[in-house]
Amino acid sequence: MFQPLDPLLHSELRLAVMSLLISTEEAEFPYIKEQTGATAGNLSVQVDKLSAADYIEVEKTFKGKRPCTVCRITDKGRQAFEAYIEALKSYLHK
Amino acid sequence: MEENNNLTAERSLEIITEQIERSRRSITKNSVWSLIWWGSWIIVFSLLIAHLGQAWKDLWGLMLVICAVGQWFISRRKEPAPKSFIGKTIGQVWTTFGLFFGTIGVILGFGGCGVLPAELVLPDGHICLNITSIISLGFGIAATITGFVLENRIMQICGIIAGLGGFFTTMQYPQIDQLYVMAAVAFVGLVIPGLIIKIQTGIKVD
To answer: Known SUPFAM superfamilies for this protein (chain A) (predicted)?
Structure first.
């Protein structure tokens, strides 16, 4: 029996963002952009969606005089990611 | 990477693996300059003090200042990497190494120049301490742990060779000549892994 996959995570870019953040404490927006190869606009939209679902928290700070956006995964996001992996297993084991 | 909701399970898994691996690679890349920087200066000062004589051992203090200043610049020009458990662990391993051996060095130094009573620091009758040997071992342990955390086989092997090789080899030589072994330990334990990782990850030399 296939388990349903969380539609919020079942997207290439959002899944990549969550995968980056799962193994880190926090990551800055430019780093995520560079690693995923996404455009700033598209990434921003996807980050907002994840943030609206409370999967990640976004903190806007300053690094010196330059604005700096830091993303970190929340407990809810971690649980959702783990559930996604569990659901994924049901597809891979068939 | 664009918005694509029609992912297969295999593609999902591929994305997850790829991104986790990328973050590990960023941290590995960022550790290269520190390895080469510290390793090179340890070699230079080991050879220098071995050449000039034991009376010049206070030059180690100058080396620490040069390395610390360089490390500050290296940290500033690092490519962006996320704060992670891996990076934190590596930092803590080397901080622990520095803390232990720095403290031992200072206490022994104070004992040697009479600030602390020598008989209290190192009672001759009971203890035979070969500090270069122990530092080599500590070096090797820190480098090997770093290799395991980064899952880098070369660093694991170099750390083991440097640590165990240095520990036993230094005991074969009189005190001042042990510094030549220390230079070799730094070369094998820090510089070689740094250069190999640099070649593997394609970092340019400035």
So the answer is: Winged helix' DNA-binding domain
Among the partner-chain residues A19, A22, A91, the one whose CB lies closest to the CB of B9 is: A91
**In terms of pTM, does the model score above 0.80?**
no
Between CA B125 and CA B132 the distance in angstroms is 20
pLDDT digits (tens, 9 = 90+) for B35-91: 899 999 999 999 999 999 878 888 888 998 999 999 888 877 766 667 777 778 888
Cross-strand pairs, B84: A24
**Domain residue spans of chain B:** 25-201
Chain A interface, Cβ < 8 Å to B: 5, 7, 10-13, 15-16, 19-28, 30-31, 34-38, 42, 46, 84-85, 88, 91-92
B131 contacts B182 by C-beta, under 8 angstroms? no
A70 phi, psi to nearest 5 deg: -115, 130
Q: Which of B15, B80, B86 is the closest to A15 by Cβ?
A: B15
What total of structural domains would you count in chain A?
Answer: 1
Residue A79: CATH number of its domain: 1.10.10.10
| Residue A81 resides in a domain | yes
Which residues of B fall within a CB distance of 8 Å from A10?
Answer: 5, 7, 12
